[in-house]
Amino acid sequence: MSGGPAVPTGPERTDPPFVADERPMLEAWLDYHRATLVTKCVGLEEAQLRERSAPPSTLSLLGLVRHMAEVERNWFRNVLADEGAPPLFYSDDDPDGDFDRVDDAEVAGDFATFHAEVDHARERVAAVGSLDDIGRRQRRGQDVSLRWILTHMIEEYARHNGHADLLRQRIDGTIGE
User: Fold this and answer.
1) 145 has which bridge partners?
2) Which of 23, 26, 46, 167 is deepest in the core (most CB within 10 A)?
3) How far apart are CA 1 and CA 134, in angstroms?
């Protein structure tokens, strides 16, 4: 650890429009939540990003970033595009590895992975013509539309950004949107 912040700058976080067609609205809200997660990490050192919430929980900001990289990867690479992308941070033998194995994780590399998965997800979404288009893989035996995936991703980020709020406040007292 260098002693300086592990995430020196945050992404541009833009408020979603108040009026827009459905697809740009969903994409804007998803991007807003993606940026919010990274914003919660800006200015912290590696040890702070690894800091757990409260025993016995293994929840940490770095774990949330790793988890959301996996979620992006699964929904956009696998369910939407059927790329067959294997998990990065967990396995069948270690199903919570994205959260649990942060002590020796490479912070910069994990953030780079997160950003790469987000970029790839945007490419996958751009390649789909309609919100009604169905992903190439089913989920629990059901077809899944792009609309459902985008809505689910907003929900997933919103839930975990709430966790990130609490973690950040516990770490250094920072509060905010």
Assistant:
1) 134
2) 167
3) 44
List average pLDDT for each run of 10 residues in the chain, which is 177 residues long: 66 91 98 96 95 93 98 98 97 96 96 97 97 96 97 98 96 87
Amino acid at 52: R
What is the widest separation between alpha-carbon atoms in the chain?
48
CATH of 22-172, one of 2.40.160.20, 1.10.357.10, 3.30.460.10, 1.20.120.450: 1.20.120.450
Cβ(83)–Cβ(114) below 8 Å: no
* DSSP characters over 59-102: --HHHHHHHHHHHHIIIIIIIIT---PPPSS--SS-TTHHHH--
Could you give phi then psi for residue 86, rounded to 5 degrees?
-75, 160
Q: Which residues contact 148 (CB under 8 A, 6 or more apart)?
A: none
